Amino acid sequence: MSNNRSTSCSDALFIYNERYTEYRFHETHPFNQRRLVPAVDLLRTVGALHAGNSLTAEENIATEEQLLYVHSLEYVNAVKALSSLSPNPEWQRKAGTFGLDTEDTPYFPRMHDIASRLVGGSIAAVDAVMSGRTAHALHLAGGLHHAMPSKGSGFCIYNDAAVAIAHAKRTYGCRVLYIDTDVHHGDGVQWSFYTDPDVCTFSIHETGKYLFPGTGAVNERGEDRGFGANVNMPVEPFTEDESWLECFTEVLERTAAHFKPDLIVSQHGCDAHAFEPLAHVHCSMNIYRAMPQLIHRLAHVHCGGRWVALGGGGYDVWRVVPRAWSLLWLEMSAHPLLAELGRSPHLPLPDEWLKRWQPYSSEKLPDTWLDRTEEWVPMPRRTEIVQKNRQMKALAMLYLS
User: Fold this and answer.
1) Which of 41, 134, 197, 389 is the most buried (most CB within 10 A)?
2) Considering the entire predicted model, what is its pTM?
3) Is residue 121 within 8 Å of 160, Cβ to Cβ?
4) Where are the domains of the chain?
5) What residues are labeled active site?
């Protein structure tokens, strides 16, 4: 596939549907797509979303055929059966077989239709980029990377990232580099393509020694023809910005140069932040500004700008998610606010946005785009953590010439 397509850096498409918020397990579950609403509102408030760069994904619902690119027919049938308001008792007894009766991933009414819509949005993002309609596409409701071919897991019913990658391969014949920045290892995508030499999966995450899903070790490198096309960069708990970005930058640059992709699909979980309640990494908003910058550059260096970005985890829905995901879109769309942020690290968030959302947050909302890290207490064992991460980084790059 040719990488000679000339694209404008502002050539980006934002894919959104108000109904994405219907993906919810129950009222007190930590994964709630309501986090999309303040994020989208922040982008609208700063004028970053308009008719020219937005697609309302009304009819983009994945077909059963598309789901079967990754998931087994038995699993899809189970999801459908358990989507009823009153599932058959026999299916309720079978729910555990498919990972759909756990505290993390319990079945809920209409989940097949709702989850299929999320998958459809990620497929639409791939189509928009690969057809040449746009260089970059963002689908924040996607990135549900833990679902396995025959099992729901980690808040994920269907694995939209894996289905979208499979669609890109089947429809456009391209080699795909998948980049996962979620603090939890991107296990479902990894295992879906573990023997595939045309899909390279790269994941930076907190080590699975202490955190769900317990995988993502540096020696998980792929199997058979896919050996070497799987790269994991596990970092220590309490890793801070500088060490996280050192590992991310060096390993990813080497991975992209080695693999030579036609398309980048990236997952942007924003749960490596210090405020995150479900992990132990201690990074700031600085990494959510820097990581998209690197991915953006690599997309233009290696694959003609073709870049699909998805959402992911992130459970501090007021203080972290809106800022992190807004910074991602500002980078993808080359919004002038980024240059202003470069001149003024403590650039304030819009006052009207803060007033609108503060009543919903039990914590005081940050009033700046980036965190005031100079006020943070440095992590104990910083030197030891940095050294352990560097040792792991060397191992991660062992087969990347």
Assistant:
1) 134
2) 0.96
3) yes
4) 12-396
5) 146
